[in-house]
Amino acid sequence: MVVQVLDGVQFGLRAEHDLSWLHEYGRVFAVFDQQDSGNICFGVDDGTTRRFIKYAGAPTLYYDCGPGDAIYRLQQAISIYEAIQHPNLIKLLDHFALPGGYAAIFEWVDGDCLHAHWNFQHYPKYTHPQSPNVRFAALPLEAKLECLASIYSLHQRVTKAGYVAIDFYDGSVMYDFATGHTTICDIDLYKKAPYANEMGRLWGSSRFMSPEEYVLGAQIDEVTNVFTMGALAFEFLGNNRERTLAEWHAPRALFEVASQATSANRVERYPSIAAFCAAWDEAVWFC
């Protein structure tokens, strides 16, 4: 590992890489170098505006496919952000090629990623009281339902734009504890529908993946995404590993909707994101 420093912020790469072009956007105040996507990301402040910059081309620590593959994936993602406009989706501002890679410039979003972290010695895994997932779990039910509603609304827009969600999980969700605003920060691997599974096991967290996301050639569609949305409900309101009523912390009517959504049998799930959202909203109404 090679340690580089920008404006006093250290980060690791497999080899030195020229990132001096970042200074055109101001002072680097944050670096996110632990992703397995092949991208390295930066928070940059020009004194007036903060921006989030995603860059492919550097030899990141946890990506084995090479910078060229990462560059291609980021380039392909641009059209997705341009096609899907929603108040809970991070906003793409600009994108361009560089001699050593490709960059996408986004608005900076305040908030915390809701994927569990803060694994410290004196706490069982993912239970540190300052971890965002622990803080989020302690919020009132109403706040968690509002967060889910934002995410479900965005994925209705995804469907209308003709895409399917791939690699969506709690790590894609930013939550601002000060304002209660939810932002989806990563839709890079979403695909234009219709889409057939080209990998076998697709990208993603197993906690959110339907059975067909492990099957080469399987159809990946709205019904697949219904499973993902149901799994998110269990992640935020229950136990996404067990999915039992005993560990559900919301009205039973919502549990029934989430359970149907996460059926291993596609036929038993809701036939569309719209149908799932209608059932969910009805259950919320009677809470």
Describe what this molecule looks like in 3D:
With 287 residues, the chain is of the alpha+beta class. The chain contains 6 helices and 14 strands. It has helices spanning 67-83, 132-137, 141-160, 222-237, 252-261, 273-285, and strands at residues 2-6, 9-13, 27-32, 39-45, 50-56, 92-98, 101-107, 112-113, 163-164, 173-175, 182-184, 191-192, 195-196, 219-220. The strands form 5 sheets. It has a 5-stranded antiparallel β-sheet with strand order 3-4-5-7-6, covered by helices on one side. The longest helix is centred in the middle third of the chain and has 20 residues, at 141-160. The protein starts with a strand and ends with a helix.
Overall radius of gyration: 19 Å
Note the main sheet. Answer: 5 strands, antiparallel
Globular, elongated, flat, extended or rod-shaped: what is the shape?
globular
β-strand percent reads 15-25%
The end-to-end span amounts to 52 Å
- DSSP helical segment count: 6
The string of secondary-structure elements, in order, is EEEEEHEEEHHEEEEEEHHH
Mean pLDDT: 93
Assign a percent range to the helix content.
25-40%
